[in-house]
Amino acid sequence: MKLVITMSRRSGTGASIIANELSVKLGIPVYDKTYIEQTLEAHEYENEAEAIRKLAGNPCIILGRCASHILKDRMNVLNIYVCADKEDRIHRIMKLESLSYEEAAEKVERTDTQRAAYYHEHTGRTWGDVNDYHMILNTSDLGMENCAGILMHYFEKLEYI
Question: CA-CA to 118 of 20 to 30 Å: which in 9, 49, 95, 111?
């Protein structure tokens, strides 16, 4: 199966780390905002949605960019939402970016607000609505280091891989 994984996430959840670990285990690329913007510049796509549809022609992992909504009608797409407790997210950002608690808390809040606005602007829907995802991973409860393994086990059980 040409599995395409979309991964929406709250700021500071570790979703990028999970996506990169899955990328290595599955041997498929991860596409994020930077890559998709570069793809738009390098090719003559009308918009991000067209670029995402083209990239999803092959197995891959797409972080954010409303990919779960853009690809919602495809049978080979698994939409994942990664969340974590706010305190855990703040502390992860503090450590990663050497920020004070206040700076990290503000960054988490600002990034989440921007992502929610972007999602609503492009889909008309509420970002993080559980009905839009096949699976929700809470890295506070499951442990960020366990999530790729959980997903791999799931893929094997369903014979996606």
Answer: 95
Closest C-alpha to 51, from 28, 42, 133:
42
Residue appearing with tokens 């992860």: 92
What is the per-residue pLDDT across 19-65, written as a single tens digit (0 to 9) for each? 999 999 999 999 999 999 999 889 888 999 999 999 999 999 999 99
Report helix, strand or coil for 59: coil
Write out the CATH class of domain 4-84+130-157: alpha beta
Q: Domain limits of the chain?
A: 4-84+130-157
Residue range 89-129, pLDDT digits in tens:
999 999 999 999 999 999 999 999 999 999 999 999 999 99
Distance CA 110, CA 21 (A): 27
Neighbours of 72 (CB within 10 A): 13
Handedness of CA 36, 42, 47, 53 (dihedral sign): negative
Alpha-carbon Rg for the chain in angstroms: 16
